[in-house]
Amino acid sequence: MTDALNTKRSEEIFGSAKNLMPGGVSSPVRAFKSVEGDPIVFDRVKGPYAWDVDGNRYIDYVGSWGPAICGHAHPEVIAALQETLEKGTSFGAPCVLENQLAEMVIDAVPSVEMVRFVNSGTEACMAVLRLMRAFTGRDKVIKFEGCYHGHADMFLVKAGSGVATLGLPDSPGVPRSTTANTLTAPYNDLEAVKELFAENPDAISGVILEPVVGNAGFITPEPGFLEGLREVTQENGALLVFDEVMTGFRISYGGAQERFGVTPDLTTMGKVIGGGLPVGAYGGRKEIMSMVSPSGPMYQAGTLSGNPLAMTAGIKTLELLKQEGTYEKLEALTKKLLDGILTAAKESNIPIHGQSISAMFGFYLCEGPVRNFEEAKSADTERFSKIHRMMLEKGVYLAPSAFEAGFTSLAHSEDDINATIKAFQESFSEIS
Ligand SMILES: *Cc1c(COP(=O)(O)O)cnc(C)c1O
After folding, report:
1. Rounded CA gap, 160 and 372, in Å?
2. Ligand 1 neighbourhood includes 125 CB (under 6 angstroms)
3. Which residue has the higher pLDDT, 179 or 14?
4. pLDDT recorded at residue 35
5. 107-120, pLDDT tens digit by residue?
6. How far is the CA of 120 from the centre of ligand 1 (A)?
7. Distance, CA of 429 to CA of 200 (rounded, Å)
8. N or C terminus of the chain with fewer C-beta within 10 Å?
9. Is 271 a residue of the active site?
10. By C-alpha distance, which of 150, 47, 70, 66 is closest to 362?
11. Distance CA 340, CA 162 (A)
12. Which is the catalytic residue, given 148, 187, 282, 364?
């Protein structure tokens, strides 16, 4: 390979890792399976940058897949963590920091009157589904093609073609009997949802979705879609659940529900809320959350849930985000980046479609518009894979898949954005 990048040490470490862990990684998408080359092994991160074990520096647009919205290793978060660390890492008993973070979440997120902390987004989504079922006494759930809600059995369903495909498991090991209760519809297709409700009277506990999709590239809700889901769920005695694990505290301080003015019954959170430590949460109306053990009969627990270290990182991160002008800054910065990417592609006659909201962006190498996962699939993944490698060589770290959103942070400067746009210009022009 004519790689300009020296990745000798990365290759050595990843080579060993492959014998130690499946695929050499702790989470699949890190393995660079859908882009050129081997994964880069990181040594440290700071602000908008990541350094690999060979000493190369990258401007990072993955941000640990979302949490690093204030920039990596923010000095105030680190200082708060160091102070908390001295008092111990896990109590297994109530701590006041849980109250603090709970109050902040309840103040910020319109749908949340009560919250339960867990350790990951997967855990939050798994618990919220149990809660949807417990509260409604119904077993079925509607999800959308291309939306990711963690790796729990009942969410591992990809929709086939057709409007309302009955779910078949995406992974061996997931029982058909489990996913039989998972109904799927194309994103932005309200009619498909209405049909599912008509076909399954009094059987659907609710609808769960990413209010802005970040796990199939970046897809925004069409006007009226979220509002329509709010109505159709209410009409059918079902719950509306926003999975804001990615969008929470990123699309705005109150999440996508604040930005779009549609209030779900329940919300899941993760990523930003943990400020880089493992935290997830689910919350919603008091009446529903009171079903959760020990105040109600729905069981859900966690040895490390609400631990002081994780709560501290969350609290500090939200404090930083709450400051005046934060989201205006993120919005402008991200828009500038996206505009630069779109212009650069067009200058090289490369078809592209992209969007940004607040500190999230995404582009597809196709004409667009992209309103659902099916349309997203027309993107040129081979070209993306090459661009991804070229950008790495130019010191820019993008998510290693054509179907992931990009994340900016408060630490990214105008200079970082300009350098990134320049790298895109060069890459697009080299490949066209
Ligand atoms: C990342 C993500 C999850 C899963 O969270 P983990 O912390 O990785 O378990 C669930 N839902 C959405 C929308 C996500 O982006």
Report:
1. 13
2. yes
3. 14
4. 92
5. 999 999 999 999 99
6. 7
7. 52
8. N
9. yes
10. 66
11. 37
12. 148
Residue 148 designated active-site: yes
Q: Whose CA is nearest to atom 15 of ligand 1?
A: 246
The angle formed by the CA atoms of residues 281, 180 and 270, to the nearest 5 degrees, is 15
Between CA 164 and CA 356 the distance in angstroms is 29
User: What burial class does residue 349 get, using C-beta atoms within 10 Å of its C-beta: 0-12 exposed, 13-18 middle, 19+ buried?
Assistant: exposed
Looking at the domain that runs over 75-321, which CATH code has it been given?
3.40.640.10
Who contacts 422 (Cβ-Cβ below 8 Å, separation ≥6)? none
Q: Domain locations in the chain? A: 8-61+327-431, 75-321
Q: What is the pLDDT of residues 238-252, one digit of tens each?
A: 999 999 999 999 999
- Token digits for 432? 């066209």
Nearest residue by C-alpha to atom 5 in ligand 1:
121
Mutate to test the pocket of ligand 1, among 122, 187, 209 (most ligand atoms within 8 A of CB): 122
Say how many Å lie between the CA of residue 93 and the centre of ligand 1. 26
In this predicted model, which residue has the larger pLDDT, 185 or 161?
185
Ligand 1 site, residue 122, Cβ cutoff 6 A: yes
- Asked if the peptide bond before residue 369 counts as cis, ω within 30 degrees of 0, the response is yes
**How far, in Å, CA of 401 to CA of 28, rounded?**
11
Q: What is the pLDDT of residue 332?
A: 98
- Measured in angstroms, how far is the CA atom of residue 402 from the centroid of ligand 1? 18
Q: What is the mean pLDDT of the chain?
A: 95
Does residue 181 line the site of ligand 1, with CB under 6 A? no
Give the rounded distance of the alpha carbon of 81 from its chain centre: 24
Residue 400 CA to ligand 1 centre (angstroms): 17
Report whether residue 233 contacts ligand 1, using a CB cutoff of 6 Å: no
* Widest distance between CA atoms in the chain: 62
Q: Which CATH architecture has domain 8-61+327-431?
A: Alpha-Beta Complex (3.90)
